[in-house]
């Protein structure tokens, strides 16, 4: 496990050489230069290998502290370096950061493979696991030992030597492919931005959107206007653009990402699917999906299929019925032929406006970003958990857009830092996410530093950023993840914050969305950015009704992406899809599930499905709907017990948010809800179950913001 070529020391002037001297261990972004990162990674790997070697060569009897907690403590330098690099590869991927990421992705994969494949350390963990009930461990420590043992086995510790060698090769190649896929999707999205030179082509877009398009063009050094792409298939401007041909060009730009030239991702994704299937076979699983689901709360592919198959036919039928209405609106507008995918959002908005007298753009003047943040997102956390937030402009960020808030607990003690980064830019991947710079851990005496990234178009200098209702939902959603990290109260970093199964991690964040339109929160932030007038009640009422419209479309596009994910990862070892057959494979999957609704493309097509082929969601995109079953139950629980009350927040925090992965996820859920989850609340909320005697929460929209 030693590598004499890798230095284990850094010069003292490298900012990673010692723990950060800033509050809560915030990385000293103003002192870090890109050339500091690679030496820190090399030294960090060398130091951690030395720490692992000390564990591996210790004499028996083995102890939990001497083996498991020693492993938990190891790698401090490497963690500091990676906690800088990994978030920036998504949030601010400059050419220098990309180069470091490309160089070190396979090296880090090989490094982390070394631990579970070291038979000496596995022998210690295996010995402790066999004696686990005699060690006098507290429940969280016992769970950690069991988790370590399971991780070792699932990472190949029980394989023979040829199997271990092949696993190393697979993991190294997969990590390189994933990093390359992520880079190409970002490049393809940037290249596919729709450039418009005639202002008439922007007809229908709101003032703020037009200004953002002009600012985006100026930032890229081109004349006219530039509509940049967000990561999912649906593009926000499609709901407003009156020119049908412009809509077509925009959606085709979105859906053909990853199909052309230097940014063609098909060879990468087909290779990844094959390698993942081969890797699953090493562990005795028929498919990668079986391997993944075995370690999730769902437990099996069959359990997921049961949920999805109950929703698919109803969702598709609703989507087809909605399309009939929209096609009639298309024809009434003077167009012939069938409804096309680029027509769907526009005519949905037209029909929604006619039926409910509301346009999403009508709400933007009342949804100014800073007010949504301070008087909405943060206020809800103050009311529910007693937290307070103080902006710290004295603390550095990694980009001029970044803002830092210090978070104080109800007793006034410092809890951690909340870092937010709202605006889109070319160095930032699409979508929205939460991550951490520092994980909470009593063992390491660390408090959390969490960050939330969105991709709101940057307004012109001096103009306010005005959000859409969906962007408001997204802000509340991602801050739900942030709360999961900020309120973590565990000993071991392995269980900190959002370190829970993939099909559970979205649950707390989806619950947090319920406060976006709550009557104790909404009036404080939904005020006209110029006049200060509150959002009119009739406009809000129309919005509440309008949110329920189009559920067939939203559920169908989500299920389409979910089933594509599962189909790619249900391929057995040896089954290879040719890159040129990717589109045919997709079509067959959707048709086979009855989701081939012509006007409803999947939320992600394979070629830009970064969640699955670049992130950690392979065979796991179903987790949004799985988590939503739990979310709908907890929304009912809050509603039944009085809504935005501190005592409910305290219960939710104590039993669930603070526990991270240190308890069984379903046990944490039951501790709050009082029983096992049932699907009925979700089915009712999505309009797929009619129960006239059941209470309906009028504040819970029929369509939560859904997957990001």
Provide the fold topology:
Elements: H1 37-56, H2 64-73, H3 76-91, H4 95-114, H5 119-130, H6 139-154, H7 161-191, E1 194-196, H8 207-220, E2 225-227, H9 244-255, H10 266-282, H11 288-293, H12 301-332, H13 341-356, H14 360-363, H15 369-385, E3 388-391, E4 403-408, E5 414-423, E6 433-438, E7 449-456, H16 469-486, H17 502-512, H18 522-525, H19 537-547, H20 551-568, H21 582-592, H22 610-613, H23 623-640, H24 646-655, H25 665-673, H26 680-685
Parallel strand pairs: 5-7
Antiparallel strand pairs: 1-2, 3-4, 4-5, 6-7
Provide structural commentary:
By secondary structure, the protein is mostly helical. It contains 26 helices and seven strands. The strands form two sheets. Strands 3-4-5-7-6 form a five-stranded mixed β-sheet, sandwiched between helices. It has a two-stranded antiparallel sheet with strand order 1-2. The protein is globular.
What is the number of helices?
A: 26
Give the N-terminus to C-terminus distance in angstroms. Answer: 40 Å
> Per the principal axes of the C-alpha atoms, what is the gross shape?
globular
What would the CATH topology of the domain at 364-547 be?
Answer: Neurolysin, domain 3
Low-confidence stretches: 1-6, 690-706
Number of DSSP-assigned strands = 7
Q: Largest sheet, order of strands side by side?
A: 3-4-5-7-6
Structural class: mainly alpha
CATH architectural type of the domain at 364-547: Orthogonal Bundle
Beta-strand portion reads: 5-15%
Main sheet specs: 5 strands, mixed
């Amino acid at each position: 496990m030693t590598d004499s070529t890798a230095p284990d020391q850094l010069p003292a002037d490298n900012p990673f050489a010692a723990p950060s001297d800033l509050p809560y261990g915030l990385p000293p972004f103003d002192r870090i230069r890109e050339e500091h990162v690679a030496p820190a990674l090399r030294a960090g790997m060398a130091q951690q290998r030395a720490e692992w070697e000390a564990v591996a060569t210790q004499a028996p009897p083995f102890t939990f502290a001497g083996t498991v907690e020693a492993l938990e403590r190891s790698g401090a330098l490497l963690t500091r370096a990676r906690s800088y690099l990994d978030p920036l590869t998504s949030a601010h991927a400059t050419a220098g950061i990309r180069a470091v990421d490309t160089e070190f992705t396979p090296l880090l994969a090989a490094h982390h493979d070394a631990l579970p494949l070291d038979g000496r350390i596995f022998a210690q963990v295996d010995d402790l696991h066999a004696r686990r009930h005699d060690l006098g461990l507290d429940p969280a420590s016992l769970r950690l030992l069991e988790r370590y043992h399971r991780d070792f086995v699932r990472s190949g510790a029980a394989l023979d030597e040829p199997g271990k060698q092949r696993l190393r090769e697979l993991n190294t190649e997969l990590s390189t492919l994933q990093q390359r896929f992520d880079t190409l999707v970002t490049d393809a999205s940037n290249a596919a931005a729709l450039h418009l030179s005639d202002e008439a082509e922007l007809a229908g877009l709101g003032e703020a959107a037009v200004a953002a398009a002009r600012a985006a063009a100026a930032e890229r050094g081109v004349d006219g206007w530039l509509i940049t792409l967000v990561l999912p298939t649906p593009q926000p401007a499609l709901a407003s653009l009156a020119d049908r041909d412009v809509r077509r060009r925009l959606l085709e730009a979105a859906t053909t990402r990853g199909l052309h030239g230097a940014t063609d991702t098909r060879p990468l994704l087909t290779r990844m699917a094959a390698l993942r299937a081969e890797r699953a076979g090493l562990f005795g699983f028929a498919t990668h999906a079986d391997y993944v689901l075995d370690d999730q709360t769902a437990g099996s592919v069959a359990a997921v299929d049961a949920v999805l198959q109950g929703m698919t036919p109803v969702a598709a039928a609703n989507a087809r019925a909605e399309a009939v209405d929209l096609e009639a609106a298309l024809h009434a507008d003077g167009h012939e032929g069938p409804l096309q995918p680029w027509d769907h959002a526009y005519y949905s908005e037209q029909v929604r406006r006619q039926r409910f007298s509301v346009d999403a753009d009508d709400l933007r003047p009342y949804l100014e970003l800073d007010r949504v943040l301070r008087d909405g997102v943060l206020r809800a956390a103050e009311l529910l958990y007693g937290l307070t937030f103080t902006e710290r402009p004295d603390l550095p960020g990694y980009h001029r857009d970044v803002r830092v808030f210090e978070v104080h607990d109800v007793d006034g003690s410092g809890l951690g830092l909340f870092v937010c980064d709202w605006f889109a830019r070319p160095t930032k991947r699409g979508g929205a996410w939460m991550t951490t710079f520092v994980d909470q851990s009593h063992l390491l005496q660390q408090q959390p530093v969490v960050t939330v990234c969105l991709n709101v178009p940057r307004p012109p200098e001096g103009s306010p950023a005005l959000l859409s209702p969906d962007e408001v939902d997204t802000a509340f959603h991602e801050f739900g993840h942030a709360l999961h990290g900020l309120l973590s109260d565990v000993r071991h970093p392995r269980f900190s914050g959002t370190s829970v199964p993939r099909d559970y991690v979205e649950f707390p964040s989806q619950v947090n969305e319920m406060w976006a339109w709550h009557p104790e929160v909404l009036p404080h932030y939904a005020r006209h950015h110029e006049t200060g007038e509150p959002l009119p009640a009739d406009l809000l009422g129309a919005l509440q009704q309008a949110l329920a419209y189009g559920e067939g479309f939203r559920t169908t596009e989500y299920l389409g992406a979910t089933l594509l994910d599962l189909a790619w990862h249900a391929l057995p070892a040896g089954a290879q899809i040719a890159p040129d057959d990717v589109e045919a494979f997709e079509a067959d999957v959707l048709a086979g599930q009855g989701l081939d609704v012509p006007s409803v493309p999947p939320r992600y097509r394979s070629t830009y499905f970064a969640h699955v082929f670049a992130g950690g969601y392979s065979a796991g995109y179903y987790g949004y709907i799985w988590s939503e079953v739990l979310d709908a139950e907890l929304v009912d629980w809050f509603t039944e017990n009085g809504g935005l009350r501190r005592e409910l927040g305290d219960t939710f925090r104590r039993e669930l948010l603070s526990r991270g992965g240190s308890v069984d996820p379903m046990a944490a859920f039951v501790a709050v809800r009082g029983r096992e989850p049932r699907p009925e609340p979700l089915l009712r909320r999505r309009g797929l179950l009619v129960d006239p005697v059941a209470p309906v929460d009028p504040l819970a929209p029929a369509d939560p913001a859904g997957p990001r």
